[in-house]
Amino acid sequence: MTVMEQRGAYRPAPPPAWQLRTDPEPLLPDAAPYRVLGTEAAASADPQLLLRLHAELVRGRRYNTQATALTKQGRLAVYPSSTGQEACEIGAALALEERDWLFPSYRDTLAAVARGLDPVRALTLLRGDWHTGYDPREHRIAPLCTPLATQLPHAVGLAHAARLKGDDVVALAMVGDGGTSEGDFHEALNFAAVWRAPVVFLVQNNGFAISVPLAKQTAAPSLAHKAVGYGMPGRLVDGNDAVAVHQVLSEAVRHAREGGGPTLVEAVTYRLEAHTNADDATRYRQDDEVEAWRDHDPVLLVERELTARGLLDEDRAATVRENAEAMAADLRERMNQDPELDPMDLFTHVYAEQTSQLREQAAQLRAELDAETESDGAGR
Amino acid sequence: MTTVAVKPATMGQALGRALRDAMADDPTVHVMGEDVGTLGGVFRVTDGLAAEFGDDRCTDTPLAEAGILGTAVGMAMYGLRPVVEMQFDAFAYPAFEQLISHVARMRNRTKGAMPMPLTIRVPYGGGIGGVEHHSDSSEAYYMATPGLHVVTPATVADAYGLLRAAIASDDPVVFLEPKRLYWSKAEWNPDTPETVEPIGRAVVRRTGRSASLITYGPSVPVCLEAAEAARAEGWDLEVVDLRSLVPFDDETVAASVRRTGRAVVVHEASSFGGPGGEIAARITERCFHHLEAPVLRVAGLDIPYPPPMLERHHLPGVDRILDAVARLQWEARS
Ligand SMILES: Cc1ncc(C[n+]2csc(CCOP(=O)(O)OP(=O)(O)O)c2C)c(N)n1
User: I need a labelling partner for B25 at 20 to 30 A (CA). Which of A116, A160, A314, B334 fits?
Assistant: First the structure.
C-alpha cells in the first residue's frame, strides 16, 4: 500500500503537546464587576470592617485634598491624586497581613499610608528631597514606582524568594490601566503564573492613562480577561466599593498564601481629579461623565450603607472627620517645614563603597559648599 | 578533599567553577536565566549546577530578559543574591529598563536601605563568527549608568576571581564575559583558585618602557601579541589589563602612562562615544605633561556589528595596533 492509499485510514493520535490544560479552576472573570454595597449582600458585611473602611476612606480623601493643596503652595512638585479611587487603595491595602509586601505605583501613596507609612515620608518622592523617604523593609512597602509596570516583576521575584525561604508572604502589585500595555506587565504575569508565585496583581482601571481612554489602550473585553492567557484567574470588581475590593483582594491573597498562585484583579473605578495637578482634564473628558461617577463616590457608598444600618450617627461621623482633619493639619504643618538636606548624601548611596571617581567629585562639591558658607559669612 | 592537579582549564570552566563555589558557600546565591538548568547554558558555563543544587537554585526561566532581571530585583529585595545570565550581549537590551531604572539605582533611591547584590553575566563581543545580534560590545551603555560595576576578565584565573568578587559584592555587577575567550586555556588548579583584589584594580600584564596599551577583555591577548610583534621594531610595550571599567583604576593607568609617556587605548566596541574616549580623556587630564604624543584609540569601526565574514575588518587586530604605535613616533625613543 502506498502512502497515498493509506491516507483515508491514517488518523494519528495528536502529539502530547496538543493537549490543552483544562484546570477545574475558573479563569475567566464574571461578566460584570463584583459588588457588595447597594446590593443585598451588603447586609452581611461586618460592621467593624465597614466602620474601619469608612474612617480610612474619609482620611484618604482628606489626604488627597491636602496633598493637592500643598502642590498649589509649591510644597510638592506634583501630586497624582487618587480621589475617587480610595476604595481600591484602602480595600486592597487592608487585605494584606503585616508580613506581606506592597508594590505601589506613583499614584498609590494612600495604600502605603493605610499600611502605616508616615504620611510625610510617603511624599518625599513628590516633594523632591529624596526619591524614597523610607526603608522599604520597615513597612514592607517597595519604593513608589514611577516607570510604568516595572515594579510588577519585582513583586513576583520577592514573592518567589519568600516562598523559596518557606515564608508565607504574599506580594500585592498595583498598576494602572495604561500600565497593562507595558511589556513588564506581561512578563510579570507570565513569570508569576509559571512559578505559581504568591502574588496578587491589582489593576486600578480608572478610565484614563493621562488622557488616553481605555478603548485606545486595549481591545481586550476587560483587563481581567488578560489573566486567562497566563493561566491565572482574572477577577473583576467594582473599584468604588471598598467592601467588594476588600473581599476580592482578601480571597486572592488567601489563595496565593495557600499555594494557589497569582490572581489578576481589575478594579473598575474612576479618576475624579486630573492625572496630576499639572494636567488639564477638560481636554479629554466631559463633565457629565465625571458627575455620573461622583454619584458612585466610594465614600458615599460606605456612608449610605452605614447610615441605613444605623451604624453612623452624627457624633461618630464628626469624630471620623476630626481625625482626618488632625491628620491633614499635621501633614500641612510638617510639610511646611523645609526638609534638612545634606548635599554630600549625593555621593553616599551610589555604591557600597565610594569609587575614587566619586571621592574626587565629593571633594570638589565639599570645596564649593565651603566657599559658599565663607561668602555667606563675609556678606553678613 | 581530593586534590586536583594543575591542568589546563578553559575560561568557561573557571566561570562555572566560580558559580559552583559561590553557591556552595552561600545558600542565598541563585543562578537564573534562559537554558541555564538542564542544558547548562548555551556556553555550558552553568553545566551541572541544576543537578547539584536543584532547579530552585539554578532556574530555567521563561524567555524574557526584562522578566528575568525584574524578578531578580525582587529576589534581591528579599535577601537573595541572584546571578542572572543574559544569553548574548544583544539580547540583554530588553532588560535595560530594569537595569537602568531599578538595578543601578535601588540603593540610591532608598538612601542605602535597599542594596542590589546581583550579578548580571553577559557573554559579549565578537570574533566567534556569530550571526547578527550575537557579537555586540555593549560596555559603553553599562559604563554610562552610575550605580553599576562593570568588569570583564581576560584570563582564566581572573575569570574565577572576578566572578567570585562580583557575586560577593553588595552592589550590582555587570559581568562581561568575552565570548571568544571562553575556550582559552591556562594551567589552573580549581582547588586553589586565586581571588582578585577588590573589584576596580587594573593589572599590568606586561611591562614595557616605550608606550602603554590600555585594554581589557577580549583585546588583552591581541595587545600582548602586538607587544611581542612590536619588539622587532624596537618598541617595548606595556600592556595594562583594566579588568574593571567601573570603578576605573586611574592610578594604575596613569602610573603606566607616566612611565612610558605614550598610550593607545584598545577595545572592540565602536570608537565614537565608546569607552576609549573616556579613558583617553582621563589619561590626558592626569598625564598631560608626561605625554610625548596624543592618546590614540584603536577600536571597532563606528558601524553596527558586521556580518561574520567581514568581522575581521571591524575588530582591532595586531596590525592596527602596530600602526597606531607607529603614529606615536613623534621622535619617540624606545
Ligand atoms: C514607562 C513609562 N512611560 C511613560 C510614563 C509617563 N506616564 C506617567 S503616568 C502615565 C499614564 C499612566 O496611566 P495608568 O497606567 O492608567 O495609571 P494612572 O496614572 O491612571 O493611575 C504615563 C504615560 C511613565 N511614567 N513610564
Answer: A160
